[in-house]
Amino acid sequence: MSIVKSAILGLAAAVLYSGAASAQLEYYEDYEVSDAVWNVTTVKVDANMGDYYLEGLKQTWVAANEVSKKLGHIDDYMILGSDLPQSGDFNMLLIVKFAETEDLAPNKKRYEEFMKAWGDAAVDDSRKTSMELYPKVRTITGEYLMREVLMK
Fold this sequence. Notes:
Number of domains: 1
Strand order of the largest sheet: 3-4-2-5
CATH class: Alpha Beta
Largest sheet: 4 strands, antiparallel
Structural class: alpha+beta
CATH architecture: 2-Layer Sandwich
Helix content: 40-55%
Distance between the termini: 42 Å
Shape: flat
Radius of gyration: 23 Å
């Protein structure tokens, strides 16, 4: 490599390095995070078990989140499935959006309100599905509380 090329590459590297080193964003001035918080669960569903797992989720997780959403306990929820289910540590995301962190805290009133709306039969069915189906078809690989980063 010529001396000129080496000098140019060295100068480019120095500029890039100094730019990264001097980057100092200020919280609330340059960015902030949302009040809303997302609970994200990463799941590895076994090969060819996706439909079985989704069927169980529809009866348990989705149904419970629908009750929570109607009661105003959560803002929203979603399931994301990978187009490449056999790659990586997980192939499905279960996501629940809460308006703010305090909505995650234990709350007797919200609990009693949910249990009344959910019902004893649903509790029993959900418990049965969770104990009998889920261990056979999936592994939970992680759980995260995430906030949206809002750049200004």
